[in-house]
Amino acid sequence: MAADLSQIVKAYDVRGVVPDQWDEKLAELFGAAFVRITDATAIVVGHDMRPSSPGLSRAFALGATAQGADVTEIGLCSTDQLYYASGALNLPGAMFTASHNPAEYNGIKLCRAGAAPVGRDTGLADIRRLAEEWSASGAPEPAATTGTISRRDTLDDYAAHLRGLVDLTAIRPLKVVVDAGNGMGGHTVPTVLAGLPLEVVPMYFELDGTFPNHEANPLDPANLVDLQTRVRAEGADIGLAFDGDADRCFVVDEHGDPVSPSAITALVASRELARNGGSGTIIHNLITSWSVPEVVKEHGGTPVRTRVGHSFIKQEMATTGAIFGGEHSAHYYFKDFWNADTGMLAALHVLAALGGQDGPLSALVSSYDRYAGSGEINSTVADQADRLAAIKAAYGDRDGITLDELDGLTVTAKDWWFNVRPSNTEPLLRLNAEARTRSAMEQVRDEVLGIIRA
């Protein structure tokens, strides 16, 4: 009987509990299917520090070699280090990680050569179909010639590539607290930041996929508390927090206060525009702050608004030739990084900006953080479509209000806006609201929540 992989093959990646939902046997089938669907003759494979990652990644490699592809294993790496390898070596790639999910989870992020994403509509659905078929019928017919497996260390080259894009040699000395959350930041940060005028205070750099200190998910405020406390205690200039696979970076200022990813997007956008002669396209999703398109225009750039999700961002980056893109979730995308996301490169930009002037980080980011935002608020609902219709009815006839449905429902007025999006995988509606004042934001937030939760 064929395995039903619908619960673990998501829109953008494979993700599930090991061994309950998937195991090394399925990983081997995924490796074979990946080679079949991409017609790859060679691929690159990396993995994070989770206990199940080495076995799963090796099984995937064996499935790939059985189909005739040569495999370059880069071993322990961050997700953006795997993207670097895919881009620099011009090979399709597979990264074994479950990002910020708890220890019992693992997954695969797949890309074509040059770090081009593989999602449901760009090959992942076909990979799932083949893996399901083979789970019932047995392993696929092997190729006439088995591929080889070789090892390669890409960490130094990855670090050199990033540091070649941001000049930190002339910055003033900074004290930086870094919380790696026992994830892959503990592997990459020491090499990337080595030799710079930085005093790095490490937190939880020991690679441990059981996450003994806190979940490696900085999007949850509870997981920033240790970093915030340490920044204050150390009198540090800045704090950085990475998620489990270290492709996202969150920033706290010298007071320990979180800096919104929208403000980071605006700051990095201004620097990338300056680096590109004061012009260029910047991508932002529709729930980033009003500050982002304003700053982009002020610095000579062209802002382009997209749906939420890395596949939409990367597609728009490629279509428009954009130089940079940012999301509210702290994913940051760079043309000079094969349009892929790298929190480490965004962190280098923030360190360069902070160290290139004398003021504190809170003052530096204040010009990029101009409005009051609610953050993302999730509500469990019985009928997503019904609640969205109720919101549309409540606001549709009001003067001075516009509605659009690019992604969920966005309602915009002169002094505020909000977006409500349904989750694709859970019975949730996600609300993001912003206004010119905190009181106005709280008023519209509470009004919309009243409708959602009625």
Automatic annotation (TrEMBL):
Instruction: Write down the required cofactor(s).
Output: Mg(2+)
Q: Which residues belong to any copy of the Alpha-D-phosphohexomutase C-terminal domain?
A: 376-449
Sorted alphabetically, the keyword list is: Isomerase, Magnesium, Metal-binding, Phosphoprotein
Endpoints of the signal sequence:
none
Q: Which residues form the Alpha-D-phosphohexomutase alpha/beta/alpha domain?
A: 7-132, 156-256, 263-371
Identify the CDD domains for this entry: PMM_PGM
What protein name does the entry list?
A: Phosphomannomutase/phosphoglucomutase
- According to its UniProt entry, this protein's organism is Streptomyces tabacisoli
Q: What is the lineage of its organism?
A: Bacteria, Bacillati, Actinomycetota, Actinomycetes, Kitasatosporales
